[in-house]
Design a protein that fits this description.
The protein is of the alpha+beta class. It has helices spanning 33-53, 76-99; strands spanning 2-9, 15-21, 59-62, 65-69, 104-111. A five-stranded mixed β-sheet has the order 3-4-2-1-5, covered by helices on one side. Pfam families: Peptidase_Prp (PF04327).
Length: 112
Amino acid sequence: MITATFVRSAEDNRIVSFAISGHADYAKRGKDIICAGVSTVSVGTVNAIEELTGVELPASMRSGWLQSEIPLQADDTVNERIQLLLESMRVMLASIAVSYGKYVEVRELIDT
């Protein structure tokens, strides 16, 4: 199963980090549409944040793992753009989970 975990700030509800881990095991490697979809959404979001905001996320990635802490920027407009893209990723992954809940789970936690 793939688990996507989003951690939110208790103070302002912004996404402060995310981690996506696991494998769907929906089909053989190279034919697994669930893994392909989750990978496309998550890596595409990281790439979009970097290209559209100029902020390089401190992301670590390896097979079955993508994680990043979201740095708070001095520019509120940039922070809003980053949050919009992260919320979009959360919604897209949740949409995959609605159709393929046996293979994908989306969690949200509050940072304390």
